[in-house]
Amino acid sequence: MVVTYSRSKPHSKLETAFCTHCGKEVLDRVDIRETSPVFCCLGCKTVYQFLQSSGLSRFYQLKQNNDRQIQPGGGDAIEYRYLDDSVFREKYARGLEDPQIDFFVEGVHCAACIWLIEKLPEIVPDVKEAKLDLGKSVASIKVAPGGSFAKAAEKLAWLGYRPHPIESDEKASELQNAENRSWLMRIGVAAACSGNIMLLAVALYAGLAGDLARYFRYLSLALFLPVLFYSAAPFYKNAIASLRSRTLSIDVPVILAIVLGAVVSAFNLRNETDHIYFDSISALVFLLLSSRYVLRRIQQRNLGGSHLYHFLLPSKAKRLDVKAAAIVEVNTAALLPGDLVEVGPGDVIPVDGTVQSGTSAINSSLLTGESSPHRVCPGSQVYSGTLNESDVLQIKVTALGRQTRLGRILKQIEEGGLKKAPIVIAADRVSKWFLAAVFVGAAIVFGLGADFSDGINRALALIIVTCPCALALATPLAMSLSLKKAARAGILINGAEILEKVARVKNVVLDKTGTLTYGKFEVLEWKETSHLHREIADIVVALEEQSKHPVAKSLVQFLKTRGSGTSLPVASFKEEIGVGVSGLVNGQFYEVRSLKEIDRTNTASVGTRIGVYCETKLIATALLGDKIRVDAKTTIDELNRFRLNSFILSGDDPEVVRNVGETIGIATNRHFSVATPEYKSRFVKNHEPCLMAGDGANDALALSSAYVGVAVHGSMDVSLRAADVYIAHPGVRYIEKLVVISKETMSLIHRNFAFSLAYNLVGGVTAASGHMTPLLAALLMPVSAFTVFGSTLIGTRKLREALRERGGK
Hints:
seven-stranded mixed β-sheet, six-stranded antiparallel β-sheet
């Protein structure tokens, strides 16, 4: 059913239309001969389509019978009943035990909005959790089993935040863009009207009198009305929401000033007195709207979490156009399930899909932790984020973006990023007490004013100039930008709280194998007592190729490049577990076995020493071990510079641990060897606040027990279940980068906090003493926020440069 209203003349073809769902006026004029529904936004269109497909179109009959337009600032159970329909939940809700739906919410703009929306569980019994992503204007609402999303949506609308259920970020972005356009229209109307009112005011201030002056004043009133009833609407909505929730908001005194000024001006205009303030009030509305819009865009640009996908996945993909029989390069976001994409050797697979043609080797270490490539062929399932290593593959897309296996993992990180760090909570608390103190101060200043006009001017100037927005928003902005910088450097931090905890760490506990070392056997030293170099290498390769032991594989890999490449036959081959291999080569008996006596004079040569024997005569020796990473010592030196205590905690042999520790500069009394998983867990608990770094699977117990657990390389999925931080790069170099990011971020937050308090103190004193008008306060109000945001952006740029100097991305 289509509900359309007309305001134009009967003979006109184009009519002013109203939204089929909510009744709100549609900006574009439509042809009256068209019978299709019209909508004011994507959210209303989505709801309309769902109601029609679910047989719930009677909603519109009820709405028409009630002869009522659905107002953007309100809602009722009937309007949102579709949210509890089983078909709708199946499409939009995530999770069975505690279902969750994401909503785009209109009207959010500051930390107070976050606080109010996240109080929803205390207002609506069915709601278990409410989280707001301010950058995207997306609220994630989780209800108890059998709970009602309709009740939650109704309460959000009642508070002034109209909700729209969404399936993806793309829809949220469309709704956000529509709301931004609405803001720009309000600003444009305010700018045009206030500009013209000021032109009229110039003539009045210059001494214009008589009937012309009276006409100018009434014309000023006519131009002021759109500003009062249209442009200032966001302030009314925020003030009403604040009063309904019994919270403090700067919009309450702003609206009081606007309405009071309008009433006084209208009264004076009727009595033909000179004191009218249409120019000042319209200019105030324009300045406040403009500054809030700029701050809003800064928040949207920097508080989102989509950065997680960009550093892992390619932005471009090669799509196969079957009809044209050609390969077309497209943006990854433009792909659809069922498309065919071509992935060449050395390219990262951008989607989840099924191999249609081609055979190749895939490196899935990001997802599984297994560095050895595995073979795929037609019919094999492949995943986004994995690396195609050898041949060209054609893949049929089955999942994209957040629906992929990697996307679901990164979604967990984004949800963790919405958890507030203690310092963010503290900033929110301080800003609320600060706002309360400002209101009390404004009341005192108003009472001490020379007269009513002087008192209200001083009080209003004080309230406007000391807006705590910068105080409350600068901290989460700094956290968000730092999390982005870390992600782009290959460090995934599971929430801002973890970033703050890293700054408090005093002890760094490092696993040895795979963290300080490369985690695999290598030939560290090779010596021969004979001059038959190639012959010895060929003989050892011939013997060790018969074995599957890791030592045998390392020897074969090392000696193949030293021999002649001749394949020698082996007779009477024998392998003794824990001893070695032996056999007849060219009629002579050879043995490759462990040496009973190891040369301990060279501490750098601690490892597994192998001897090569010809008829019981030693002809060559090899030392195999797990080589220390080249960046280990410099990292330990940097951690010492931060006055952090470094420990080695390993399950390996004491002599091996001692050798590694002394080589990289860790004191002997901080070497701990032959450590079981249980011992590692107890150790980190006894050395809090402690950062534990190790493999996400092998050290899962210790990582989950530590104050901060850092999984180095390995499987992202397994690692993020046990650890707080996942580092995509092997080694310890990025642990030092993590510490740098954390400490620099906290320093930046403290600096911004100090500046914001100092600015508000100076501005408040200036306004209270009568040296600042409300208009000047409106001009200066965003200065604090812009300065703090600018400081944050510059500070994180310096942080990025610091990471680049240390080899970061």
